[in-house]
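ugh ok so i messed up the first submission bc i forgot one of the chains. this is the corrected input, ALL of the components this time, i swear. 715 residues overall. if the numbers dont match what u have on ur side tell me asap before i send this to the collaborators (the ones from the other lab, u know who)
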Amino acid sequence: MSEQRQLLSDSAARLFQSNAGWEEVDALGIADILVAEERGGSGADWDDACALLQAAGHAHTALPLAEGMIARKLVAEAALEVPRAPLSIAANPKGTLARAAGAWRFNGVLAGVPWGRDVARVVTAIAFDGRPHVVVLAVTDARLHKRTNLADEPRDDLRFDSAPALAAPASSREVQRLLDYAALARTAQIAGALQSALELSIGYALARKQFGRPIGQFQAVQQQLALFGAETAAATCASRSAAIAASVGDASFEIAAAKLRANQAIGLATATAHQVHGAIGFTREYALRQATQRLWSWRSEYGNDRYWSERLGRAVVERGADTFWADLARG
Amino acid sequence: MQAFKFDPVSLPPDAAAFRKEIREFLARELPNVPAERRANCWAVFDADFSRKLGARGWIGMVWPKRYGGHERSALERYVLLEELLAAGAPVGAHWIADRQSGPNLLRYGTEQQREKYLPGMARGEILCCIGMSEPGAGSDLAAVRTRAEKLPDGRWRINGQKIWTSNARQSQLMIALVRTSAVDDKNRHAGLSQFLLELNTPGIRIQPIVDLVGHPGFNEVFFDDVVVGPECLLGAEGEGWRQVTSELSLERSGPERYLSSFALFLELVRLAARVDSEALRHAVGRLTAELWTLRHMSLSVAGQLAAGEDPMLAAAIVKDLGNTFEQSLPTLVQSLIGEDIRLEDDSDLARTLALLLQTSPSFSLRGGTREILRGIVARGLGLR
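and heres the new structure output, hopefully the right one now
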């Protein structure tokens, strides 16, 4: 990471820790980080973007950052004119895009849109005439069904009845496989939240005394936390490796592996975090739930274990055992 | 917070060409090796194959040329190791010399010791074994009781016993950790030293131990009044603990710590290609994610070692997660196969599964038990 980007990452992390709102975060240029420089963005790569998202996950930042970054990148690529306002994405649109008299219309449902109620527009990708198109829809044109994930983050359903849309063709990997890149972003947030849960657990184990000494001095507790640490390291390394792969080329294999590995870390990590914390971890007030409730939700969002293990498993089996190692060790 | 350091590594630009060279060599030298012999292949002893690798310049390839090495980079060596292991090459004969005995000599040996042994190791002719464990010293390595006493003429007299020594009968050299002064209860790590022992020295007796599948890979090595010259001391007297722990970082970080069951994974992929089963596909998907992650973690540790760091903590994590993965595979495969496949079948899948079911419990014992590794990680987390 260049010095300039390290500065951005550090100031972003400070901002996230201070619970800044969208205006302050957006003023730093974070939402435009993936937008090319000639279109007014930072021209950063996925590795840089994921570093910010990991910091946001660590700080339990309740903003549509991942979605905003991707939305702005898509809008810029398709050269669509969208007023500056918070944006979100729909990674799994169900419906049809139509064109009549030069005007685009969308008929269908965007389910589970992060912060749907709070943003002005939702960006998605839909094929039209065999070509992927970036599609922008105004939330005010939707019938909005408010829903939230386990961490109280909005995940709203939006229904559009032949609503007016902006649309234009684009061909980047992010447009062609929007879900994959949303999963990549979520994986970075998962890595951050796992680290936060680990830190809280270690801090608690060192502070909480039973039988006359901190519970972290008991070997049984130490061994559990060591494995929690190892799982956190694995998810973090997977997230980073996929982000680097996405920065240089086609990363569908790496993203599948990373989201799946991060999902798998969540089980042991959340169980251990709560086991170490005991009853206090189950209170509304204590911070641990900010990490664990997000992790439980994020494990399902943008592809759960079943989805990614089917995709990855099918791809590997179709390629066959004889090419497996060569595919894995491409570098 | 960055709890642990796993910075990504870029392999050198010529790595792809080197991989191709290795794969062509292996395709030529190792046709039709049955799958169960490809499993856990760094424990498979084949002195002829080791000499072929040596002739190729692929043992001690990072060592200085004046000691028979080839001055290649540490990451090139990593590429070689992972290619050998993924292909299931029988690399057990020279593995210890290449991985730790040679590097240990380079770090602590005298000029005379290096010249005497390193060129033979690099040719695959001098094979080494590890002299750490004893009947009363396993995880608690500082409890070794084999003793070397200094004679008035400067020579050393060694008495005691090592155990669980892989390949001792076929090796020429052992680096043994022994006690050179009495135990100090306040500092148990003091008073230990390392010795380079030629195993044909009078007074050394080696006896095989047959393991649970009937393979005589382990040995007991007895030392009865073994007298050696002062030139057999490796490094400084009393510095054995520091030397042996740096040896352990090398021992714990490599790709062998997650690839021991890789041959069985490939059999699982073949089965999933024959039988249309969601359960098999999903297992392949999950295991692929784990393999891919472990490879990046292991590679990152290799990069840290190449940069001259001592990534003890990261190495412990890779070994712990890697061993857990290697051990989970046989049980998982056994749970997924159909009734038409039996453990006693004469097929690649069944023979590999049967072997690994029985031998994989040892993967989290050799080179440091899971419990010891997690203790190291807990210390790194600030809990100890």
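quick check: Chain B touches chain A through 56 residues (CB under 8 Å). that seems consistent at least. The mean pLDDT of chain B is 95.
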